[in-house]
Write a structure and sequence with these properties.
By secondary structure, the chain is mostly beta strands. It has 2 domains: 131 residues, Jelly Rolls (Sandwich); 130 residues, Jelly Rolls, CATH 2.60.120. Helices cover 9% and strands 36% of the residues. The strands form 6 sheets. It has a 6-stranded antiparallel beta sheet, with no helix packed on it. Strands 3-4-12-7-10-14 form a 6-stranded antiparallel beta sheet, with no helix packed on it. Strand 15 and strand 16 form a beta hairpin. It starts with a strand and ends in a 5-residue tail after the last strand.
Length: 330
Amino acid sequence: MLLRVIPISSTHIWKEATCDTWPLLAHAPELCLDHRELEREEQMAASQWRLLVGASVALILAVPGHGAELNPAAVVYQLPEQIKWNSPSAAGSQNSVLVGAPSKPGLYVVRNKWLKGNHFSRPHFHPNDRFITVLGGTWWMGSGTNFDPDNSVPLPAGTFVTHFGKQVHWDGAKDEDASLLIFGGGPGTSTQVEPSAGKFSGIDPKAVIYTLPDQYKWRDPTGAAGVNQVVLHGDPTKSGPYVVLNRFKPGNFSKPHFHPNDRFITVVKGTWWVATGNKFDPRNTVPMPAGSFVTHFGKQVHWDGAKDEEAWLLIVGEGPATRTLVDVTN
């Protein structure tokens, strides 16, 4: 078997505006989970939409060439409807633990929703850094002990946020739900602090920093590459936590390969097509719609890409995340 180790570049070259192209709300309404009081007609329309999507997926899986099976030692996944959420808390939030246990040491990945209606956490801190991507809605942020939601800072969908360990912050949702993906090293427990009166005057960069979607620096600023990437945190070629956003243009697939460590992927836009093993045949792949959560296990061969639409992926993990190609069989 011939092996080649290919580093994933973390070079930041240019700024490409993505504020108008962050895809989650437009392409994956099931992720926003907007808790509106729908009118009867809207409820019927939503039910018909879900039935249509379900029938479409079933049809795709029934078509010859789409009956692929994945090796569960290499790849496991949860479709959007398989993600299990806890009941809303008294504070107005819900979460789903996807990887690990946030109360214990070790890597964890959590989906969190702040429900609309001016639901906010109170000032608090966590023992370790946390890395958060706003998947949908607007997340409102403050730092320090001055609890003043009226003057909190809006962070739109696509914003990438770092909460530094042992630094006080608070956050929540106003008139729409805010959907988040949170990644970090546990424990990720919260320690409350006493709020103080006064006007909030701005985010303290010692506590919170963020990158808006129009501040992303893509590896290929022209957008011509078949696969593009922006590194949001860390360096995937080195040890330590990393967060990257990948974009596959239609018709682009990786070749069979493996990574040294587990990787955890959220499909943000489009349909991502996945396969395992070293037989490369894009017709024989499994579709992962927007909202799916996928785990690639370390040292296990897989490959993936996009067919007739662009696919966006949010990938988190512990580096190094180098890619080792393997011989391909037809």
